[in-house]
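queue> holo job accepted (FE(4)-NI(1)-S(5) CLUSTER with Oxygen)
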Amino acid sequence: MPREKKPIESRAWDAASVELLEKAGRDGVVTAFDRADTQQNHCKFGTQGVCCRICHMGPCRITPKSPRGVCGANADTIVARNFLREVASGVAAHSDHARHLVLLLKKAAEGAAQGYGIKDEKALLRMAGKYDIDPAEKTSGEIAATLAAKLLGEFTSQEQTLETLNLAPVKQQNIWKSMNTVPHGIDRMIVESMHRTHIGVDHDYSNILMHAFRTSIADGWGGSRIASMVSDILFGTPFPVRSSANLGVIREDHVNLLVHGHEPELSEMLTIASQDPKIVASAKEAGAAGIGLAGICCTANEILMRHGIPVAGNFLQQELALITGAIEVMVVDVQCCMPSLPEVAQAYHTEIVATSDIARTIGATPFSFDTDKALDSAKELIKKAIDNFKSRDPKKVAIPKSHKPIVAGFSVDAVKYMLGGTFRASFRPLNDAVMQGRIFGIVGIVGCNNPNSRLDEYTNILTKELVKNNVLILKTGCAAIASAKEGMLTPESALNEAGDGLREVCETVGIPPILHMGSCVDNSRILEAAAEVVFEGGLGDSIAGLPAVGVAPEWMSEKAVAIGCYFVASGVDVILGNAFHVFGSEKVTDFLHSTTQDIFGASFHHCPSPEKAATTALDIIAAARKKLGIDTQSERKLFDMKDRREILV
Ligand code: BF8
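queue> job finished
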């Protein structure tokens, strides 16, 4: 029987996506939304996590009639092993990204990377300080070289534990020590995950899961943190910047080049190259008004945060962007780039260029990106796009109008600066606003899109509900792009959307009620912010216990599993819109959704609807406020001179 097609409006929240899905139908192009239909009735063994493909005596599938695999592994072992492998893969993705950046820092320090250098000396010194590198009488190249060597040690160390863990509050560090979850080198943690899950090794589900948390800590406080910090050194620490988001940023009269993926090395160079007067002139010679550079997914977030380059869309819009018929070249690197892209591109004139040697796709043009001559490579790619402009078929072009203005670029440094200025940059006003109840709590909303639910719907409903309830929102990844498309990333949106208390704070400081903190590796910035809140004082001595929650509404990737785990291991409760594939084991389910409260002071919560997620988050925050003794809103008082003299500064 033919499957019933869902109405197009039920697939995506934003009008631009709906418009292009309709065009996809007219153009005969198949997208992830269609493929999701053909993949419905997901395998129950897979969704329950009880399918074991680890050895070749199987695959084994656990049922009440066959409760053990051939080797004797039961559902608890199998589910836990599958879970750990997901975490290890997510950690590997973030951390390999970080490794590439550290290797680039090393090259830049040696002066061997064309076009790269130390863009943010302050960020370099900040990080050097954390690694006890004495900057006296050293050039910035020498400092960077020493730092790069130390950072490479974070990946390879066999016996030393990660030095970046010192960036966490002492209470978290002590919990990790007492629970034996302090990670050694990042690579070692990932290798050990694969070893433990090999047939016949670790069979105790709780031991396996504890290693999942340990490995995830090596991501949040290790790999991802290193990626964000090194990006800041090489490309600059983000500060608020205006831009716009959604497919309407694609300009019909421009040569259009989209960057998609995660690693910022090439997209930084493309940003520079796209402004080269000679290149702009050759685009004009080809009949275009200029070069239109925009991004998809987290590469988009990287160049948005630092340069204000517009965002064309999030994960499920990557194919839709091509369906505009107006993209000359899409440059892809690693992670979240669909293998279907060349097939979609075939319906138009778009060339998909795969620039990473570890990520090739059939039908894409391979292009080895070499950091030794990065600027030349970037120019070559833009030239490709200019050359391809003449092949565009105007009859196939239809670009939705819709795009919204945004303000992004909220690194922790930027937030501190906005709260206190250059001389008194601090989280004090934020902590005070939380203690007074003007800000009820802080929620990090992160993660992906998933065609199993309507694109952006959960994220947008939840975000609006929380903002209305005076919750300050920190965002990254595709969830941030969802709010961007909804027009909620401007300070002005506080006027329309935020509760009175939050609105007052946003208006005073000049920030939006939703702070875009960057790409997925920048979830480490949310941890950094949580640590800063603790260090500032007044809200307890631990991240666990802060009136703060994490939510991954529409997550789908293994990276999201790793992120969820490091949030929980750091003491932040995490609400999931989609459930983990663990319900085939009651013990594993309980461990993740309850037992970790006793270990880390936080756990996972599965909330299938945004309404349920909002009430759960507000309840968790209310309970934390009560425990901290800040559940009754303190009276606002006008200070007289005597009061002012008593304030200690
Ligand atoms: O790393 S949020 S869909 S793009 S995995 Fe991928 Fe998910 Fe988007 Fe960025 Ni993160």
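queue> Residues 262, 297-298, 314-315, 335-336, 447-448, 477-478, 519-520, 557, 559-560 surround FE(4)-NI(1)-S(5) CLUSTER with Oxygen (CB under 6 Å).
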